[in-house]
Amino acid sequence: MKLFSSEVKEEVKSIIRRMMDGVVNRRIIEEPWDPEVESMNKPFHFALAPELVWKGSKFERSLVTSMGQIGWEQIARVIAAGYHGHAENGKAIIGQTYSGRLNQIHNILDQLEHRRRPDWDVELEEILSIEEGDMEEVHVTADLYIHNERTNQFIYCEIKAPKPNSDQTKVSKEKMLKIKAMHPEANHNVYYALPFNPYGRREDYAHPHPKRWFDMINDEVVLIGKEFWDLMGGEGTYEELIDLFREVGQEYLPRINRDYFGIED
User: Fold this and answer.
1) Which of 91, 163, 196, 229 is 20 to 30 A from 77, comparing alpha carbons?
2) How many domains does the chain have?
3) Dist CA 40 CA 211 (whole Å)
4) Is the pTM value of this prediction over 0.85?
5) Residue 151, in any domain of the structure
6) Is residue 149 located within the same domain as residue 30?
7) Domain membership of residue 221 as a residue range
8) Are the beta carbons of 185 and 152 closer than 8 angstroms?
9) How high is the pLDDT of residue 265?
10) Domain check: are 142 and 163 in the same one?
11) pLDDT level of residue 17 (50, 70, 90 thresholds)
12) pLDDT tens for each residue of 203-261
């Protein structure tokens, strides 16, 4: 059973096409392959393997870089709006919480930077147990905000590349803790989301930088790949999204084969 409406499907495909247009135009038109320059820049590489290996490698690097900039947040918004009813990128979250909670958030972040082991449930319990200090206004911008009016569930997502750096992850952790400090209610949920897992299984996720701030294996607020996309659009969304990427890829395959690799049908 297909989950996406025709409108959602076409909007997602248009986002993917914009990314592919950039990659194909850069590699074929703007910066075409020059074997003399490439072999001069990588003489030892060219001595070891055929030119086609390095030509494919250059296209692959452009594709990976562009996928990091593809707008995972926008794709998630389109899918979530179709499934949950309302979704926004860059939503300003404004509220109030105790100054004591804000101080504890900063204490926890400092401790995590100096070898405290991350544990979201323990950290959140420490913060929410504090009801001291003046009420302070807090401003946070969520990468993705979702409100499901049917269930009255609120979802706030920090969406990062599959191998984020430490500073990005620290900022996301602080934002998530502040949102929960303002909204401790059970129907307000925050997540740290990665669009796919470059290590395959969740238990094998090994990129070191986010592991300083989250227990990437056990923290339930961490969503990787299928877990994230199925939250956005229901069970099966991950597989259906991959199918959309595959459909768009087939549109570009003849041109890539012909104009970049010189492969005729």
Assistant:
1) 163
2) 2
3) 39
4) yes
5) yes
6) no
7) 72-234
8) no
9) 67
10) yes
11) very high
12) 999 999 999 999 999 999 999 999 999 999 999 999 999 999 999 999 999 999 999 99
Confidence band of 67 (pLDDT split at 50, 70, 90) = confident
Say whether both 51 and 81 belong to one domain: no
DSSP symbols for the chain = ---S-HHHHHHHHHHHHHHHHHHHHIIIIIS---HHHHHHHSHHHHHHS-HHHHHHHHHHHHHHHHHHTS-HHHHHHHHHHHHHEEEEEEEEEEEEEEHHHHHHHHHHHHHHHTTPPP-HHHHHHHHHT---S-EEEEEEEEEEEEEETTTTEEEEEEE--SS--HHHHHHHHHHHHHHHHH--STTEEEEEEES--TTSSGGG---TGGGGTS-TTT-TTEEETHHHHHHHH-TTHHHHHHHHHHHHHHHHHHHIIIIIS----
If asked whether residues 250 and 180 sit together in one domain, one would say: no
| Same domain as 66, residue 167 | no
How many whole angstroms separate alpha carbon 218 and alpha carbon 207? Answer: 15
Q: Is residue 86 part of a domain?
A: yes
Tokens coding 250: 């087939």
Residues 203 and 192 in one domain: yes
